Amino acid sequence: MSFATVFRAFPFPARFLVAHHVLFPLWIGTACGEVECAAVDVGSHHEACCAKIYDEAKPYYNYLTQRCREACDEGSYYDEKKRECVEADGVECVEPPTKSDGEPLFPLETYSYKCCVKKGKLYYDDEQHRCTTRSPTRS
């Protein structure tokens, strides 16, 4: 089956077009070596893709560089620009620990908040990477 346009018939079969649409982003990511897990299915998460590929070695995703990354230890946070874990005083509840297969033990979207609540603090300050008793204010 070929597609017909307003001006002329398109000579490629439908299977070729679908395969090209699906495989081209994967090929670009592999050939360039710069993008990982960018062509994940709608509704799935980049972290799930990284966990499948690297297990617990690189379970998280750096959205700035579009690469899988390692998990940071307690008391440190991930600096996306520097592409490394940074230790700082007072840093807490940044990312959940992971299982041996790389999957986080707790949902990423709610981990910081729930971790802070367990510590008796109701808010999480994204800029300082710590729990607070008052809502963080942005200047």
Automatic annotation (TrEMBL):
Keywords: Signal. Residues 1-33 form the signal peptide. This is Uncharacterized protein. It comes from Noctiluca scintillans.
